[in-house]
Amino acid sequence: MQTGKIGVTTENIFPIIKKFLYSDHEIFLRELISNAVDATQKLKTMASVGDYKEEAGDLTIRVTVDKKKKTITVSDAGIGMTAEELDKYLNQIAFSSANDFLEKYKDQASSLIGHFGLGFYSSFMVSDKVEVISRSYREGSGAVRWECDGSPEYSINEAERASRGTDVILHIDKDSKEFLEEEKVEQLLRKYCKFLPVEIAFGKEKEWKDGKYVETGKDKIINNTRPAWTLKPADLKEEDYMKFYRELYPAGDDPLFNIHLNVDYPFKLTGILYFPKIKSNIEIQKNKIQLYCNQVFVTDSVEGIVPEFLTLLHGVIDSPDIPLNVSRSYLQSDSNVKKISAHITKKVADRLNEIFKNNREEFEKKWDNLKLFIDYGMITEEKFYEKASKFALLKNTDDKYFTFEEYEKLIKENQTDRNKTLVYLYSTNKTDQYSYIEKAKTRGYDVLNLDGQLDVHLINHLESKLKESRFVRVDSDVIDKLIQKEEPRESKLTPEQQEDLRSIFNVRVKSKEIYNVVVEALDESDTPVIITQSEFMRRMKEMSQIGGGMNFYGELPDSYNLVVNQNHPLIGKIISDLQENKGSEFEAGNSERSRIKEEISFMEKEHKDKKEEEIPQVEKDDLEKLRKELETLENARKDILESYGSENKVVKQLIDLALLANNMLRGEELSTFVKRSVELL
User: Which ranges of 69-143 would DSSP assign to H, the alpha helix?
Assistant: First the structure.
C-alpha cells in the first residue's frame, strides 16, 4: 500500500475546487465521461497502429447510480492505468495524461478530448470521497485502487478488476444528493454527452408490458456516436439534415435551410447551422447554437464565438481550436476565435447568396422569415453588410421584391427631390396608412413596406450607406413636402387669416396626443385637413422603445401635425363664414390691435440704437404696458376663434375625417362623428 500527499501548493486546493474552480457543479459528470472517452479513444488509436494487438471487445462506457450506497460510478474499458500512472496523473494536478499521449500519437490522436488535467478533480465538487479502480492494458498488470477523501492525503493499493479499464466511484456528499436521482443523471448525460463518439449506457431499455414499464435487459444508449456534423456533406441527404435538426430541437417549425461547416485549415471547425423561421422577438431565438469540443457539449451561449446576429441561428459548432478555461463554460479571447467568427460569417453570407442566385423565387418566398436575421446582420456586422447588400431585399406595399440596386433604379427618376436627394418612401402599416400610400401612388411614387422589428434601425443604417438618400415615412408630411420638387405654392390667404386658421383648428386639446396646427398652401384638390407625424421625432421614439438608446425620447408623448390646406375651397369657406359671423366683433379689436402694434414698432425703432441704460425707465414701462395690452387683445381674439372652431360642425368634421383616415378616431369620438355626419347630410 502506498500513501502520500497530492502535489499541490496549498492544502486549500480542494475547497477551492469545490466552490470556485468550476462555475457549474453539474459538469463533473461531463468531465469524468470525457476522461473515459479519452481512455477508450486511446485504446482505439493504439489498436489502429498495431500497439495493442488483443481484441478490444465491448467499449461501452457505463454510468450507474446506487442510491443506497450514495455512489455514482463511471466505468470504461479503455487503456486503464498502472499504480505508477495513477500516482503520476492523479496526484500531480494539471499533469494530464493526454499531454504525454498526444506527444507520442499526435498524428492519430486528434479526437482526444481532455487536455486540461483538472477535469478529474471536478468530482470533488459533489463528493466526500472518490475512488478510482483501474487496470492497465499492459500485459501482466494488476488492478489498483486510488482513494482520496477531499484532503491532500491519498492512498494507492491493490484491488480487484477482471478486465482492462477504469471505474471512477464518487461517494456523493449530503449537499449534492440531487445527483443520486436517475432522472437528473440522465438529464445531464443527454445534455453534455448526447453526441460523444463512444457509446454510453445508463440503465436498461424499458418496454410496456402487462400495464407497466419493465426493463428489457438491453443497455439504454443515451448518445448518438455519429452525429450528422461529423459526417461528410456528400454522405448526407436533405432528410438526414432534417432528422438531425429534430434530434436537436424536437419541437417547433422546420428550418428554412442549412449550412454544413467543414474546415481543416487554418483551424479545425465542423458543424451544421440551420436558419429557423424568425418572425419577431429576437431574444426568444437566442442560445440555440450548441458549442461542442470534439463532440463534448460545452455551452449554448456562443456570443463569444460567433457574431451577435448569428446567435439567431440554430445548430451545432464543434472545434477543438476554441480555447476554453477549466470549466469549458466561458470562452477566452483568442485570435482563433476571431478567425472562426469571420469564417462562419462568410459561409453564412455565401450560402444565402448562393440560394438567392440559384433560386430567387424560393428566396423571395422565404424572405419574410429571413428578413429579421439579415437586417440584424447588416446593422451589426460590417463584413456581412458588404456581402448581404447584394442579396438583401426590399419589399414594397404591392408585395414585390427588389434588391437595393434594383429599387434605386426603379425610383431614381421620379423620387429625386430638388436637392438631388433620392427619397425612399415607406409604410410601417399598410392598413393604417392606406390613404397616405394611395396618395403617394397617385403621384407615381413607390412605397416600401417596412414593418419589421428592426426596420427603424435598418433605415438609419441604410441612410449612412446609400449616397444622397433618405427614408421618409409616407405619413410624415403632406405629399408635396415628402419629395419637394418645386417652390412652394402661393397662398390664397393673408398671414393674419392663416393665423386665424391655426386658432380655429386648435380644438384637439382633450387628447393625450399633442397636436400642432400647421397651415400649408397645397393643391386645391388635396385633402383639406391631414394628420402627419414628424419623421425625426417618431423615429427617435421608436428606436428608444426597441433598445436604441436615447431613452428620453421614449418618455415623450406622441406628437402629430394637423395640417390645414389653406387653398382648399372648404377652408376658404370657413374663413369667409368667419368674416360673415364674427367680422363686426373683430373690427373694434382689429383697429385697436393695429394702433398698439404701430406704437410698439415706433418705440422699438427709437430704442434700437440706444444702450439699455440710455432708455428712460418711463419709456421701458410704457413699452411693456403696450405689449401686455396687445397680448390681452391677441388672447381675446384667439378665444373667440377657438370657440368658433369648437362650435363649427364643419371644422370638427374635417378634423375627424383626417383622424379617421389615419385610424385614430375611436370610441366616443367615433360615435360622435357618425352622429354628426348624419346631421350634416
Answer: 83-90, 97-104
